[in-house]
Amino acid sequence: MTTAKLLEPLNLKGLALTNRVALAPMTRARAGAERIPNALMADYYAQRAGAGLIITEATTISEQANGWNESPGIYSDAMVEGWKLVVDAVHEQGSPIFLQLWHCGRASHSSFHNGESAVAPSAIKINEDYIHTPKGKEPHETPRALGTEEIPGIIADYRRAAERAQAVGFDGIEVHSANGYLLDTFMQSKTNQRTDAYGGSVENRCRLLLEILEAVTAVFPANRVGVRLSPNGAFNDMGSPDYREQFTTAAQQLDRFDLAYLHVMDGLAFGFHELGEPMTLAEFRQVFSGPLIGNCGYTQETAESAIAAGHADLIAFGRPFISNPDLVERFANGWPLSPEADVATWYTPGGSAGYTDFPTYSTP
Ligand SMILES: Cc1cc2nc3c(=O)[nH]c(=O)nc-3n(C[C@H](O)[C@H](O)[C@H](O)COP(=O)(O)O)c2cc1C
Q1: Number of domains making up the chain
Q2: Alpha carbon separation from 179 to 127, 182, 264, 288, 318 (Å, rounded)
Q3: What is the pTM of this model?
Q4: Catalytic residue at 355?
Q5: Which of the listed residues 23, 26, 300, 347 should we mutate to test ligand 1's pocket, taking the one with most ligand atoms within 8 A of CB?
Q6: 58-113: per-residue pLDDT in tens?
Q7: What is the span of the domain harbouring residue 81?
């Protein structure tokens, strides 16, 4: 190991973090059919509040944004009240928490929408086997291309979601623009064949994300707003030949907002499109001057190296945090990690099994 920067405090654009380990956003599908956060979720997040920064699971901004069974939302007063349980429990442990804002876009299905099609930049379907829907596993469907006149409504949904996040007491928000969901599909040429101002050029494909940022930074100050990108990802059938140009331009454009951070899924451990050399954090450093969070497949050692080399300011850990609620303490003490959690419990609706029942480390 090089130095021990990972566990040092960080001033994240004015927000005091006790260390540089972030909890990566992870959908855990425990919010019930009504999508209202609850006491079990509060326990889960409080258990992981050793992280310097908690980023919540993806949270839908509207009914239209839904596409995952029992994931939480932030579009009703009851959801605001539910999230208060989570935020209060995390704040009691002294950790800041950002809400990840989500619109599933084409990674959804008509059975989430009373038989109406899911929406996307263009009518291009996910070329994968199936999607889990309220009716069980179903083949993917071709989404409906959004009309230009519908876009202001989506931006307004993001703005309202940010207002509700602020009413809950979240320290900030992360705009989910990764993993083949709506905003990623607007950015990438593979999924955006529009001929209006939201498609056709690299700049036009960034437009929706930038307009959303204009809207949400009128609610939260920009230094409390992060953005997540997956330039190397294949998840949800993504990966475009011009990925390097697209994501370099996006990061350049994002720089003007003076954001809390840019969260880049630079590692390949969550799937790689193999269309060329992966984009690195060092590349993003050249065009984005604010804090960078790295993610995907990091270990304590590789996280230390990335921070020591100046490539990242924080590293987000996902799967290691599922089975090691006390991940930061284990890092600090050199304790071994528990094996990765069983995939079968990642998204088990309702249950504490594989969710809040992982023990903290105890010396044998
Ligand atoms: C169970 C599970 C749920 C996930 N849900 C989300 C999510 O809601 N939002 C998101 O941006 N990424 C999500 N991801 C991706 C993780 O944030 C992270 O990028 C990925 O697990 C790679 O990091 P790791 O190697 O440290 O696990 C999820 C991953 C897992 C394993």
Answers
A1: 1
A2: 14, 9, 11, 20, 14
A3: 0.98
A4: no
A5: 26
A6: 999 999 999 999 999 999 999 999 999 999 999 999 999 999 999 999 999 999 99
A7: 5-345
